[in-house]
Design a protein that fits this description.
Elements: H1 4-61, H2 67-75, E1 81-86, E2 91-94, E3 113-117, E4 120-128, H3 130-135, E5 143-147, E6 153-157, H4 160-210, H5 225-273, H6 281-308, E7 317-320, H7 321-338, E8 342-346, E9 353-356, H8 358-374, E10 381-391, E11 394-403, H9 425-430, H10 437-447, E12 451-457, E13 461-469
Parallel strand pairs: 8-10
Antiparallel strand pairs: 1-2, 1-4, 3-4, 5-6, 7-9, 10-11, 11-13, 12-13
The structure holds adenosine-5'-diphosphate (ADP).
Adenosine-5'-diphosphate binds next to helix 8 and helix 10.
C-alpha cells in the first residue's frame, strides 16, 4: 500500500512535469514563430530595398557593370550572401566573388527576386543563407522561402547570431521552467509535510486511545480542516475519558451500595449461626428489609441503565395525568398522616389527558412525593399541584411537588439529579435512599419528551416540577 505522502508527492511531480513541460514547449514554439515573423518582416523590407536600389542602378547605367560594390554595400551587416544574375541567368555579381561568370542553373538557384525596369526584365537577385557561403554548395540550408502575392520572394534567412539568440531564448525558457518546477516541488513537499505531520500525530494518538489511554490529546496547529479534525478528535477523547470515569465511578458506587445491605445481612446471619443472635422476628425482619433494599437498588439500576441506553420501553397510551396525581396523593396521604405532615392538593376536577406510560408516570410522582415526605418533619406541609403550562411554546402539563421541609444546600442543588448523589450521605442511606430516585425521575421525564427541575431554599423547603408535553 502506497503511503499518502508518496501519493501526494507522485501527483505533485506529475503535475509539475506536465505543466512545466507543456508551458515551456508552448513558450518555445511561440517564441520561435514570433521570432520568425519578426525576421520575415525585416527580410521582406531588406529584399524590397535591394530590389528597388538595383532597379534604380539599372535604370541609371543600363547595365550591371561594377554593381559588385553596390551589392556588398547592400548586404551590409545582413547575414548571408547576395547574388545577382542578368536576365539570362548569368551571375554578374556575388558578395563572395565565387560564382561570377557562372549560370544560376549550375547551382540550381530558383525563386530569384525579379528586377524589372520599365516593364523589362533586368535580372534576378538571390539572397542565400550564410551556411551556403561557407560550404559553397549547400546554399539551400538554413534558408526558407515563401512566395508572396506580389511575386517577391520573402526569404526567411536566420543568421547565425539570430539563431544563437533564438537558442538562447529557448534555453532561458527551459531553465526558468525547470527552476519554477523545482520551486513548485519544494513548496509542494513543504505543504505535503504540513498535511502529513498532523495526520501522523492524530494516528499515533488514535492508537493510544484505542489502547485505553483516554487522556491522550493532539495539538491543534491550524484553523483549517485538519485543525477541526484535531479538535473533533480531542472532543471525542474527552467524552471517552468522561464516560470511562463515570463508568468507573458507577461501578465503585454500585459496589459500595451493595456492600452495606449485604454486610448487614451477612453479619445478622453469622450472629444467628454463631448463636449470638436469636433467629427471632427482629433479626429476620432486618434481613428481609436489607434484602428489599437490595432488590429495590437492583430494580432502580436496571431502570436507569435501560433509560440511559435508550432501551427503556414506554407503554405509551392516552392517560389522564390528573387521575394519576389524585391516586398518588391518596396513597401518600396515609403515610403523611402517620408522620403528621399535611398534604394539600391543587388538581383540576376535569381530566387532563396526555400521551404517556401510566406506570412510569406513577413512578415519577411517587418518587417525588416520598422524597418530600422523607425530608419534611412533623407539622410540615406537602403541596401537590397540576396545571397546564407552555414550555418553549409547547403546550403541556406541569406537576409540582412542594414541601416546607429541610431544603437543599445551594452547592448540592445542581447535582441532585446525578446518579448516587445524596446530600447528607450517611443519613440518607440510613433512611433507605440510594441516590437513584431523582436520576430515575430525570430519565423517565426525558423519555417522555419532558423536563424536570428543582428549586430549593435551605431550611425553607423544596419544590420539584416536571413538565410533560400534551
Ligand atoms: P434518595 O433515594 O437517596 O433520596 P434521590 O435521588 O431521590 O436519592 O435524591 C437525591 C438527594 O436529593 C437526596 O439525598 C436528598 O438529600 C435530596 N432531596 C431529594 N428530594 C428532596 C426534598 N424534597 N427535600 C430535600 N432534599 C431532597
Amino acid at each position: 500500500m502506497f503511503r499518502l505522502s508518496y501519493k501526494i508527492f507522485g501527483a505533485l511531480l506529475l503535475t509539475v512535469l506536465l505543466s512545466v513541460g507543456l508551458t515551456s514547449f508552448a513558450a518555445n514554439q511561440l517564441t520561435a514563430s514570433q521570432f520568425r515573423q519578426y525576421i520575415i518582416r525585416g527580410n521582406t523590407e531588406f529584399i524590397t530595398g535591394v530590389e528597388s536600389t538595383l532597379g534604380m542602378y539599372y535604370t541609371r547605367y543600363q547595365s550591371w557593370d561594377n554593381v559588385s560594390t553596390i551589392l556588398v554595400q547592400l548586404l551590409g551587416s545582413n547575414g548571408g550572401r547576395l547574388l545577382l544574375s542578368d536576365a539570362g541567368g548569368l551571375i554578374v555579381a556575388d558578395t563572395q566573388n565565387k560564382w561570377v561568370g557562372h549560370l544560376t542553373d549550375e547551382y540550381n538557384l530558383s525563386d530569384g527576386n525579379t528586377i524589372s525596369v520599365s516593364g523589362t526584365l533586368a535580372g534576378y537577385f538571390y539572397w542565400l543563407g550564410s551556411e551556403s557561403s561557407a560550404s559553397g554548395s549547400g546554399y539551400g540550408k538554413g534558408m526558407h522561402s515563401s512566395q508572396n502575392n506580389t511575386g517577391n520572394s520573402a526569404i526567411t534567412i536566420i543568421t547565425e547570431p539570430q539563431q544563437q539568440l533564438l537558442d538562447e531564448m529557448n534555453r532561458s525558457v527551459w531553465i526558468s521552467g525547470i527552476l519554477a518546477g523545482l520551486a513548485a516541488l519544494g513548496l509542494g513537499l513543504l505543504l505535503t509535510n504540513q498535511i502529513i505531520r498532523p495526520i501522523n500525530a492524530l494516528n499515533r494518538s488514535a492508537r493510544q486511545v484505542a489502547r485505553g489511554k483516554f487522556s491522550q490529546r493532539v495539538k491543534v496547529e491550524s484553523r483549517d480542516e485538519l485543525g477541526e479534525l484535531a479538535e473533533s478528535f480531542n472532543h471525542m477523547a474527552k467524552s471517552l475519558e468522561t464516560n470511562e470515569q463515570s463508568r468507573q465511578r458507577l461501578l465503585a458506587d454500585i459496589a459500595h451500595e451493595l456492600r452495606t445491605p449485604l454486610t448487614v445481612i451477612e453479619g445478622t446471619v453469622d450472629g444467628i449461626l454463631d448463636g449470638v443472635f436469636e433467629a427471632d422476628t427482629r433479626h429476620l425482619t432486618t434481613i428481609k428489609e436489607e434484602s428489599a433494599t437490595l432488590t429495590r437498588l437492583i430494580k432502580d439500576l436496571r431502570d436507569i441503565s435501560l433509560a440511559e441506553s435508550g432501551k427503556l420501553k414506554l407503554e405509551i397510551a392516552q392517560v389522564d395525568i390528573a387521575e394519576i396525581i389524585r391516586r398518588q396523593a391518596s396513597q401518600i396521604s396515609i403515610l403523611a398522616k402517620d408522620k403528621s405532615v399535611s398534604l394539600v392538593t391543587d388538581i383540576p376536577e376535569n381530566s387532563s389527558v396526555i400521551s404517556g406510560d401510566a406506570t412510569r408516570l406513577n413512578q415519577i410522582t411517587a418518587n417525588l412525593l416520598s422524597n418530600a415526605l422523607r425530608h419534611t418533619s412533623a407539622g410540615g406541609q406537602i403541596t401537590l399541584s397540576l396545571k397546564n403550562m407552555l414550555y418553549k411554546d409547547k403546550s403541556g402539563v406541569m406537576v409540582s411537588v412542594a414541601d416546607n421541609g429541610e431544603g437543599i444546600p445551594p452547592a448540592d442543588l445542581p447535582h441532585i439529579f446525578d446518579r448516587f448523589y445524596r446530600v447528607a450521605t450517611s443519613r440518607a442511606r440510613s433512611e433507605g435512599g440510594s441516590g437513584l430516585g431523582l436520576a430515575i425521575v430525570k430519565e423517565m421525564t426525558e423519555a417522555h419528551g419532558g423536563y424536570v427541575w428543582a428549586e430549593s431554599l435551605l431550611g425553607k423547603g423544596s419544590t420539584f416540577n416536571y413538565w410533560l408535553p400534551r
